[in-house]
Amino acid sequence: MATKVKLIADGVITPDQITLTTASTGTNTTAPATTAFVQQEISALVDSSPEALNTLNELAAALGDDANFSTTVTNSIATKLPLAGGTMTGTIAGFTSTGIDDNATGTAILIESDRNVGINTASLTSTSGYGTLSLNGTTGGQLAFQTGETGKQFIYSTSTDLNILNSAAGNLIFSTNNLERARITSAGDVGIGTTDPSAKLDIQVSNANGAYGASVVNLNVENTNTSVTEGGWLTVSGYMGNTANSGQYSMGGISGGKQTTAADGDYGGYLSLWTTSGGANGEANSGMYERMKIDSSGRVGIGTTNPNAECLTLYNSTGASRKTLLQLDRPNTPGLQSSLDFTVTNLMVGRIQHEYQASNYNHMGFWLRSPGSSNYKVAELRNGNGSSTTQGGLYVYNEGGGGTGGSQGYGHEIRLQDLSHNGTTKHSIALSGNLPGYTNGSYNCLKVEGLNDLHFAAGGVYTGYIGATTGFTDISDEREKENIVTITNATAKLKQLRGVYHTWKDTAVRGTDTQIGLIAQEVEAVVPEVVSTSNPISLNTSASDIAGLKGVAYAKLVPLLIETIKELEARITTLEG
Q1: If you ran DSSP here, which 8-state letter would residue 35 be given?
Q2: Is-contact 254 237, C-beta < 8 A?
């Protein structure tokens, strides 16, 4: 429908007298626009802009009223560091020439001109030529090594200590040249050369030369002070005592040093073993004492710091009472043996052996190597047990004897050697299996060498001797006698004695041959001076017979025979007269 215009009389048309159709948004023609169309187009232009940016003036203000805003932005972007990286030519906000400022309390990260870095510090101490990372905190510094968001391992410090912490149930491992050298397990065991230590300190090496030599030092404790001769120390400590003085004390130690005696030179070394002596309440209160020493020649001293024997010196300095210097101990089991062997190039040539038989008797044997290839027991000390089967005493065995089988050996003796006579000559006495002049081992004998006679004493009284030229001799010197009276009625007394033939009841030992002799009881009734009674009783009578056995000193009958002959000679003279 065509637009209609109403004319008024004065010829002036007001806006509200014209009515137009409002075009749709975006119309772009030469048709007149209504106010509604204009408002519609402005709303479409502003759309949902914020209240502060919905006018051109506000937009211009937001762009800095810069008519060349595009150029300005392009130039500004060109000064920024690309994501791909580049060179910065200016100062970044928050950074200084020496670090990164946290814009609050001061420098957070300090970077020095020599590239040393400090965290949470305004200054750091570094060593020239060394790259340094300094961590500072109110308690100390800390490096944390995390798996995920939870820290597991730490290196941290306090004002006095440096700590390495593994808060997990794992190990601390130390490696060089891509090889593990040592570790501390979660149980606190330290292994060097092993990944599975079995002790608090376990050192393992594998070396074809064995555990000696300069290239195989497993543990070295060194004293670098050149003004002393003592070396390093290894000590063992622990809790001792049961009073207020109790605590941790040194219990013992091992030390070394330089041997400086003229015999050993200045380059020999020694080792010493030390222990502490206990106090009255159990605590160690008197220091370390050297108990054993091995010198540079391999000599061992126990109780002395100056061993002088070729191998072992045992010394007791107290002297007030008996002290055990060497002890060989075994369980309380009958039949067990303890021995001390003597060897030459690992070949046993002698032995001292103890055999525990029971609580009340023991054996101590002595063994020597024979000229052949065997070791034989040559002597044994027994204390016995009171029975007839286990006799106490000193047993000396022939070579090959001593219970070693059928071989009985030859020639062993119990010998007292180099006895002095008047301080000028030497002699010996022996119980021997070697009767002079006969094959060794053929006959038993008691013999002397170096002197021509063997003297006897009984009850502390000299009674007689056996001489090489005189035979058995009784002491009968007038100077030893008094109250001397000639025997009378010798013939009458002799006529009362009865000589008899007899055999012995003990045929197993004495045999069955007929013997000749006197009856001691008959002789005692006539000449009691030649009869004596011994302590042993008869084994061939009843048990009630406890009288001692009687014996006759046949040689003492000679004076009676002499006086009898003299009496008979006087009678003959009288008859012939």
Answers
A1: H
A2: no
pTM: 0.51
For residue range 40-96, what is the model confidence (pLDDT) as tens digits? Answer: 777 777 676 787 777 778 778 878 888 888 898 888 888 777 878 777 666 555 555
Q: How far apart are the first and last CA of the chain?
A: 231
Give dist(CA 437, CA 440) in Å, integer: 9
d(CA 524, CA 122): 129
Pair of tokens at residue 421: 């006579």
Question: 317, 250, 248, 255: which is closest to 286 by C-alpha?
Answer: 250
Q: Which tokens hold the place of 181? A: 């050298």
Provide the β-strand partners of residue 467. 453, 471
Give tens-digit pLDDT for 429-459: 888 888 888 887 788 889 888 888 899 999 8
> What letter does residue 7 receive in the DSSP assignment?
-
The helix/strand/coil state of 46 is: helix
Cβ count near 240 (within 10 Å)? 20
From CA 292, how far away is CA 314, in angstroms rounded?
9
Please state, in angstroms and rounded to a whole number, the distance separating the CA atoms of residues 446 and 430. 6
| Residue 66: half-sphere exposure toward Cβ, Cα within 13 Å | 9
Q: Which among 388, 448, 442 has a CA at the least distance from the CA of 410?
A: 442
The two counts, helices (H) then strands (E), for the chain are 7, 33
DSSP labels, 125-149: ---TTS--EEE--SS--EEEEEETT
Indicate left, alpha or beta for 527 from its phi (over 0: left) and psi (-120 to 50: alpha): beta
Phi and psi at 522, nearest 5°, equal -70, -40
As given in the structure block, the two tokens for residue 246 are 């109790």
